[in-house]
Amino acid sequence: MKQFSLRSRVVGHPSSKAVARQMVAMCPANGRRGLALQRMAYRIVRAVPSLGLRSAGSWPLPISPESWAAIEARIRDVRGPAAGAVLWHLPPADQPQVKFGALFLDSADLPLAFARVLLTRDVPRLAPRVAEGGRTGIRWPMRLEEFCHDGLSVELSTATPAGLHVPVHLGLRAVTDLCADIDDAFGVLERHAYVPDNWTPMHGDLAHWNLRRYRTGDIHLLDWEGSDWAPPHADLARFIMTAPNGRQLAAGLPKALGPELEEAALFWLDRGAKAAEGEVPAWVERKHADQAAVLSDLLAAT
């Protein structure tokens, strides 16, 4: 897995220290080495922002000017005018349906809204309009609007705070409470007739790298666009199989959860097998193999 990846561009802004810092801050960083690299890049662009920025005319827009204008117009309607944007291109092998993400900034270079643009003509599902969890106080970005334009699907949400963040590593009790919050909040998802009766709402990517603590002390849970119905405790199984201490967490699980956790673990094993079909980068294969090993421990513990 990549520990730190600087895949951002800036559109619509001149060189600005604030924009350069935000560009680096929104990039993913995993592990001590990844965090160290991110902070080094943060200090560099703070001192010399031109190293991290290009002028607005240097980068072509990733979509047609008409589609870009449509996104800006929707953001203006729900949040106010945007002065610029930081583009974030996700690795196709990891999320092939995502064309790009864009953090829109206001005139003070502060986060205004986040747009995720998908390669689909389907109107996005309405996700939960929640701002924070009840038991843990962990916050979610609030979904603002979903629409389609020119064959693309666009999801608008509120933005996370400006500045650097650190990953959050939760204990088993905190993860269990967070899963209960998700179950309560995500119950607004549409339940189709084909969904098994025992399935419950899930975040879809509950992993430590999607939990970020900011300087304000607030913890935000990101990337909930994959929320859906799944076997009970699917989020708990997902967190355990991706956590650095996943095997220790699995060992502490109550035996009473055994049957439901087994169904959840098999659910993720099936998803991992489907995701690994075809040609994928070596780091994706290693990730799936590591997760499968933790899930095997999880099944053994049940």
From TrEMBL:
Spans traversing the lipid bilayer: none
Entry keyword set: Transferase
InterPro entries assigned to the protein according to its UniProt record, in alphabetical order: Aminoglycoside_PTrfase (IPR002575), Kinase-like_dom_sf (IPR011009)
Residue stretches making up the Aminoglycoside phosphotransferase domain: 180-266
One GO molecular-function entry: transferase activity
Keyword set includes Transport: no
Short name of one Pfam family: APH
Coiled coil: none
Residues making up the signal peptide according to the UniProt record: none
Domain of life: Bacteria
Protein name: Aminoglycoside phosphotransferase family protein
Lineage: Bacteria, Bacillati, Actinomycetota, Actinomycetes, Kitasatosporales
